[in-house]
Amino acid sequence: MTEEIVSPLPKKALAIVCGALFCESFISTVVFPYVTFMVAGFKVAHTEKEIGYYSGYLASSFFVGQFISSFFWGWASDKIGRKPVFLIAIAGSGISSCVFGFSSSYIMAISVRTIGGLLNSTFATARSYIGDVTDASNRVRGYSFIGLMWGAGSIVGPALGGILADPADRWGLSQDSILRTYPYVIPALLGAILSLISFLSTIFLLPESRVFSTDNKEKETDQLPGDEELKDITISSDPLLTEKKSIVKTNQHVYVVPENVKIDNFSIDDEEQGDVLIGEVKKLDVVVSGDETSDSDTEDLLDSGVSIDEKKLDGFWDKLKYKLWQKNSYSQVSPKKQDESFKAVFKEKSIMISIVLLSFGGMVTIGADELFPLWAMNPPPVGIGFTADLIGISWSIGGVTLAVFQGLIYPKLTQKIGLLPMVRFGALGFAVTYLCYPSLVFLRGNDVLLWFGIGGVMFLRYVTGSMNGTTCNILVNSVGGEITKKHRGVVNGLAMSVSGITRALAPIMVSSLFAWSNTNGLDFPFNQYFTFFFMSFLLIISIG
């Protein structure tokens, strides 16, 4: 009765969610190639230093809006369901994209971006939705689609944004053409059209993942939209935290058990089945095989959800990991009644630590995205003198690598090395990415070598960013047990809100540092290289 299986993903629902994610990715990245040129066109900035400052403020305004509203939208998705919040987010993105293209002043542009951030909750709601419809056996695969769709949008968005931005001269249009008055309206309208398609698909095709009874109380069910009930007890490998575990499934309930743990007594009270959650057991007596466990075995136990005696742990790091990740998390079933209000989210250490990791990763990612066009548009020796269309092509190269990595490599790599190592390797790789950016200047005289260099750097940026960002998203939705299940929207809303702070600070920080480093007249390393060294230094510190 034992076989290797992985729960099937609800394909139709996931396809609609992926469409919304692609749309959001397109709208977010289509502005990358031209935003600095747009700021220059508003004539609020008269020097390259001022353009850097104003570009940073414009990029940050969107995340300020997210910071203000994300927690509310997460709470709302727990109360009224994921689908209504999805619809509001998609509509908000489409409308703000359209209006942004008609921005005639810097004040209008920054106001529209802020409102767009206030209405935006697509990614947070998608994380909650995928968390609702996946279990430990397929969660990594489900969350990899978030990065896959971001990669797909990052291919199409920057490419079209660069090609279609300010086309009047290239197309030989007359001086009274609307495209001279609003040179960036075409890519903005494309984002609005995609939003309309996604909006209609969501209305008619997306099932609600959070099921409510007639008294508006959430039903205790793990039934996935479009999936049949699991009727047999099955065991499968768990790709979530380590490959050395098994998943015991009975009906709709899933239990994570390490392979080196022998189950002597496994029973569930039928009357309490509705209270049993993923990662929890009501009655489970275990005996660890052998007299001693290796370091890897100890780590498996800490990640597995099996209650162990803290006094028997050897080593400072094992005890620290137990305190942070296992002691008060989903793996520990307390005899006391848990706090069922959303305030319990703030008391759960594992959730808060995961959110901090996610927020820091978001800061360095947005910092890189803001820094690249600022640097690339500058002539040598500071940058490589790229125009908007060349910057867009560079982003698209990175998007291709991300789509391939997320779709083919990420799930298997995560299963092989585990979540926490993925976060660390991602941070280390991103530190190297920051150091590689300014080195491309030395390839400027040879176009072939330059584009090979850009391809390599973009590959490293997107792959390591995925290793860090996607993995942190999985951690946020995998820890916390019953608290996360009951308040998954609040958890993801809080994560997006906190990330909004760091993502809002990142563009201002890197653009200000870049402008200062190019005008301070100081020698190496405080010259044009300083911003890259500083961000790389932050990442290296975070690994420890």
Helical/strand content category? mainly alpha
Mean pLDDT: 75
**Beta content:** under 5%
**Count of DSSP-assigned helices:** 20
Helix fraction by DSSP (H/I, runs of at least 4): 55-70%
Order of strands across the main sheet: 1-2-3
Give the overall form.
globular
First-to-last CA distance: 44 Å
Low-confidence stretches: 213-314, 319-338
Give the beta-strand count: 5
Structural Rg: 24 Å
The string of secondary-structure elements, in order, is HHHHHHHHHHEEEEEHHHHHHHHHH
Give a written overview of the molecule.
About 65% of the residues lie in helices and about 5% in strands. The protein is built from 20 helices and five strands. The protein has helices at about 10-30, 35-40, 50-80, 80-100, 105-120, 120-135, 140-165, 170, 180, 185-205, 295-305, 315-325, 345, 350-375, 390-415, 420-440, 445-480, 480-485, 490-515, 530-544; strands at about 235, 245-250, 255-260, 260-265, 285-290. It has a three-stranded antiparallel β-sheet with strand order 1-2-3. It has a two-stranded antiparallel sheet with strand order 4-5. Helix 4 (about 80-100) packs antiparallel against helix 5. It is globular and about 55 Å long.
